[in-house]
Amino acid sequence: MKTIVSFSGGRTSAYMAKILKEKTENLLFVFANTGKERQETLDFIRLCELNWEIEVIWLEYDLTDNQSTFKIVSYETASRNGEPFEKMIRKYGLPNITRPHCSRELKEGTIRRYLRSIGLNKGSYKTALGIRVDEAHRINWAKAKNDFLFYPLATDFPTTKEFIRKWWSLNNFNLQLKDYEGNCDFCWKKSLRKLLTLAIENPKIIDWWADMETKYGDGEFTFFRGEKGAIDILDFAKNNKFEKAKDEFQLNQSTPLLFDYELDAGSNCSCGVF
Questions:
Q1: Can you tell me the distance from the alpha carbon of 152 to that of 133, in angstroms, rounded to the nearest whole number?
Q2: pLDDT tens column, 255-268
Q3: All domains in the chain, ordered by first residue
Q4: Measured between alpha carbons, how far is 102 from 148 in angstroms, rounded to an integer?
Q5: What mean pLDDT do residues 220-229 have?
Q6: Per-residue model confidence (pLDDT) at position 251
Q7: Across all residues in the chain, what is the average pLDDT?
Q8: How far apart are alpha carbons 29 and 35 in whole angstroms?
Q9: Are strands 125-128 and 56-64 parallel, antiparallel or unpaired?
Q10: What are the phi and psi torsion angles at 21 (to 5°)?
Q11: Using CA atoms, how far apart are residues 141 and 10, in angstroms rounded to an integer?
């Protein structure tokens, strides 16, 4: 059975790809680009390809006659201005906590459509996902069995977050992103603290998300929790004091300020740097 290696562009999925290349055969590496991945993520995947001599199939969501499809791209031709993401929004609307369809369509659905196009249907392959043993609580084992998913870093090669960061710190190249930055530049699943930190550090990052809300939100729908829009996040960041998110590997967690603990509430997503 062929093994599909789902390469998110984070450190954990990259390490998983390397381990599987060394330990197993009959692999197919795939990466689904949303157009909102940070440039550092694209650079990192390319470095993995070159340094480890692996071929990654670069995919993107596409829309033809209002039907969801896919296209094959490359490091050089991959979208960098949110084009696949906007196509998905055009069909399904803005994703948010009540309508979390971005990962489903931009990642999972896009990969499945590609696999069907090369004759791989459900049951003819299994998919390796980068969830570590220290986050195994995220795994739905019944779904994993039904969908032929497996988690080598939680089972066959138990790996922790601390090990991953240490391993990459000793490697000859690394992902040039802090923990809180994530592969998706302003993912709505991030905690409020992370979003506020990103908004302060790079206010221009807000522009695309605010534009999508204006074009497709109909004055009602927004990306973020609590019916907050991208501009609301930026305004809050500018006008309120808060403790900024930190890179956990570089800095020990300091005692948080007496501030709303809900700033740190986030959702699981496949776009994290781990």
A1: 9
A2: 444 344 344 555 55
A3: 2-169 (3.40.50.620), 192-264 (no CATH)
A4: 21
A5: 92
A6: 59
A7: 92
A8: 19
A9: unpaired
A10: -60, -40
A11: 23
